[in-house]
Every structure is written in C-alpha cells, then in structure tokens.
C-alpha cells in the first residue's frame, strides 16, 4: 500500500492465495492466530448465557480476525497496531487516529429498522472503518445489502481488515471472486447470488402427455464487500450511499471540510456520526441539513469497546433536501447534547462517552 488518495483500479482478479501474497509484508497477519493482540480485556460470557441469533456471525468475524472474543479498553489491536506511517498520514490529511469499536450487539441495534434501517438499504459505507469488523457484520447480517464499503486512513488497520477479507475468500473460495489493484490499496470480494427456479414443463411421450419439474439456475444480484486504504474525504462514491457510518473524530480545523462533504449526501440517506453535528454546524454558524432520527434520544446508547457499562450515544441523522435545514433546538434529541470536542491527536487515545460510562 502506498498512496492514500489513490483511485482504485480494481481490475486484477486474484485468488485468495494470490491476495495473501499481494498483501506481501502484511503476510504475517494471514497465518491464523498470529495477529498480535493488544493487552485488551475481554468480555467473559457467563455460563449458560443465552446465545442470540447473531452469535454465529459474531463468532465468524472473531475467527476471521483470529480473536477469541471482543476486545475492550484502550489497548485493543486497533490501538496498538498503528505505525509512524499512519501518524504521518493523519498529520498530512488533517485527520485523527482516535480509536474504539462498536461491539456486535451495538452494531445490530444501530442497523435495525428504528435506527439506520439496513434492511431497507442497498448500500452502506463505513468512513473510518478501523479494522473493518462493523462493515463485515453489516454485510453478513443483511443479505439485502448489495454494496458494503469500508474506508480507512491507517495502513496498519486497513491491512488487518484486508487480511480478514483474504481469510473469508479462502474459506469460501466457491462463493467469492477477489479483485484488487496494483498496490493492494483496495480489496473487493464479489459474490453472485444464484436464483434457482423450478418450472413444470409438459413432455409428450409416444402415448402419454406428462409433466416434469425442471430446475434452472440463473445469476441473481451481485453483492460487493470492499475495503480501501483511502482518505474518507476522497470517497465521493459514498455520497450516493443509503447509509454512511462516520464513527470518526475530526480535529477542529477539519470540521468545515467535514460539513462540506456531508452536505453532498443524497436526500433521505441515513448517517451515523461520532461528532454531534448539531454543535458542529452551530459553532460554524451554518444551517444543518440533517434531521436527528426520532429514536436517537440521549438514552439511545450502545455498548462500545470503551463504554461497556452504560454505553455510548452516537448521533443519527437523516439527510434533508438541499436548501432545507432544521433548527438546532429541534434537533437536540431531548435538548441535552454535549459537544464532543476533545483533542487527542493519536491512535492510542480512546474514544470517550459524552455521558460517563
Ligand atoms: C473509531 S474508529 C472506527 C472503528 C469502526 N467503525 C468500528 O466500530 O469498528 C475511527 C477510524 O477512522 C479513521 N480515520 C480518521 N480519519 C480518517 C480519514 N480522513 N479517512 C479515513 N479514515 C479515517 C481512524 O484511523 C480510525 O481507525
């Protein structure tokens, strides 16, 4: 992986094995069990705790990242893997490597029909995907999604996500085709659904007319799961997505750029932000073209790697038609919104809750 703003020419079809070779210096990530874990703590499931329906997906994702359980705290793999190259990129692009993950139960809740409504969408972009677990979960949990794209600035984090994609392609080589580019700055897994249709056809034997059942297979929808090493501000195709997740912290200087970017989202699209856009637009004296989702009150919290007791409240929005805006008092979701401005500057810092966890 080299440049951060590369346009990705995904024309090279490779096998999972070739992808592993292409990932080259990141190859050590691809041997199961060799991911270097931080000294994070892990959730211990109580004996006899009921498994929910998404446990199979969660277990599968952990397997793809060679983890035994969810990582918690401030020293997860995502925190500890960053390198000086990542810090340079963050500095050059006016970005922040602040890290934390939404836990699987939180991802399911945020994607449900009352929140981001992934079941009613065809495309999801995670802008600042970290290791890519959230994007992977969205893809596996919602078969209706045709395109799930994760974008990340940190080379080390992106590489871990790509390693997981390589494992996924390897374990189901019949299911996925793999595409990448010259420098492995993006990896795309594509699967084609097969539609099996059974029809009854009459056949005429010499003295009888009979009917037989004929099974026909034809290609159905194509589904894409893609991870890119890319500056999210360069990800202009995200602006057509039904759902954007931007669980990302921005330095103050980059907030005008963030507003300019998000203003270009399509009408009706749903957005999750770590930043409270209401305060951001207010501070910049701009009209906010987003309406907070009704469900997103101050108590609308989910468990994250840094908030495992009371959870963290993200900010959920619907994009309004251009030229329309909402007053901030109507948008505050019970009026008790804290600005989330805090400076951190580096990836080892952990995200924090507006309300103490
Ligand atoms: C809190 S983490 C998101 C983790 C992920 N969504 C999850 O829950 O597992 C935010 C990520 O955004 C990334 N990031 C920050 N600025 C970025 C930029 N300009 N372009 C792409 N990624 C960026 C950071 O490196 C970090 O990994």
Radius of gyration: 22 Å
Oligomer: single chain
Task: State the total count of DSSP E strands.
Answer: 14
- How much helix, percentage-wise, in residues? 10-25%
Put simply, the count of helices is 10
Which word captures the global form?
globular
Mean pLDDT score:
83
Major pleated sheet:
10 strands, mixed
Strand content range? 15-25%
Distance between the termini: 37 Å
Report on the architecture of this protein:
The chain is an alpha/beta fold and 357 residues long. The chain has a single domain, classed as Rossmann fold (3-Layer(aba) Sandwich), CATH 3.40.50.150. Helix content is 23%, strand content 25%. It is built from ten helices and 14 strands. Strands 1-6-7-8-5-4-9-10-14-11 form a ten-stranded mixed β-sheet. A two-stranded antiparallel sheet has the order 2-3. Strands 12-13 form a two-stranded antiparallel ribbon. A hairpin with a 4-residue loop joins strand 7 (186-204) and strand 8 (209-229). Mean pLDDT is 83; it is low at 31-51 and 335-348. Residues 93, 95-97, 99-102, 126, 128-130, 133-134, 151-154, 157, 231-233, 247-248, 351 line the site of S-adenosylmethionine.
Based on the model shown, name its key terms:
357 residues, two-stranded antiparallel ribbon, 14 strands, 10-stranded mixed beta sheet, alpha/beta, Rossmann fold, binds S-adenosylmethionine
Q: How are the SSEs ordered, and which strands pair?
A:
Layout: E1 12-14, H1 16-22, E2 41-42, H2 55-64, E3 71-72, H3 77-80, H4 84-93, H5 104-110, E4 123-127, H6 133-141, E5 147-152, H7 155-171, E6 177-180, E7 186-204, E8 209-229, E9 243-246, H8 255-262, E10 270-273, H9 277-283, E11 290-292, E12 301-304, E13 307-313, E14 315-319, H10 328-331
Parallel strand pairs: 4-5, 4-9, 5-8, 9-10
Antiparallel strand pairs: 1-6, 2-3, 6-7, 7-8, 10-14, 11-14, 12-13
Helix pairs in contact: 1-7
């Amino acid at each position: 992986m080299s440049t951060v703003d590369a346009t990705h020419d995904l024309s090279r079809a490779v096998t999972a094995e070739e992808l592993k070779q292409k990932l080259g210096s990141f190859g050590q990530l691809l041997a199961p069990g060799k991911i270097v874990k931080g000294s994070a703590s892990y959730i211990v499931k109580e004996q006899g705790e009921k498994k929910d329906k998404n446990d199979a997906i969660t277990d599968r994702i952990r397997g793809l990242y060679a983890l035994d359980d969810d990582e918690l705290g401030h020293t997860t793999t995502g925190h500890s893997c960053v390198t000086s190259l990542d810090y340079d990129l963050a500095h050059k692009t006016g970005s922040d490597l602040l890290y934390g993950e939404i836990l699987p139960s939180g991802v399911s809740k945020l994607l449900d029909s009352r929140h981001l409504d992934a079941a009613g969408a065809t495309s999801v972009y995670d802008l600042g995907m970290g290791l890519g677990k959230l994007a992977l979960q969205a893809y596996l949990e919602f078969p209706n999604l045709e395109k799930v794209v994760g974008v990340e600035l940190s080379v080390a984090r992106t590489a871990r996500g790509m390693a997981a994609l390589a494992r996924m392609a390897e374990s189901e080589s019949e299911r996925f085709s793999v595409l990448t580019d010259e420098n492995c700055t993006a990896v795309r897994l594509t699967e084609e659904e097969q539609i099996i249709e059974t029809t009854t056809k009459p056949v005429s034997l010499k003295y009888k007319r009979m009917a037989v059942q004929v099974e026909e297979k034809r290609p159905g929808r194509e589904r894409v799961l893609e991870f890119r090493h890319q500056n999210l501000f360069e990800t202009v195709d995200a602006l057509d997505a039904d759902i954007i997740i931007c669980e990302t912290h921005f330095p103050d200087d980059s907030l005008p750029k963030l507003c300019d970017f998000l203003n270009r989202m399509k009408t009706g699209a749903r957005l999750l932000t770590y930043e409270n856009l209401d305060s951001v637009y207010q501070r910049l004296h701009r009209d906010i073209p987003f309406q907070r989702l009704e469900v997103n009150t101050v108590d609308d919290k989910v468990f994250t790697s840094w908030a495992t007791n009371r959870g963290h409240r993200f900010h959920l929005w619907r994009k309004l038609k251009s030229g329309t805006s909402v007053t901030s008092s109507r948008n505050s979701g019970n009026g008790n919104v804290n600005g989330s401005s805090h400076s951190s500057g580096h990836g080892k810092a952990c995200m924090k809750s507006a309300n103490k966890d």
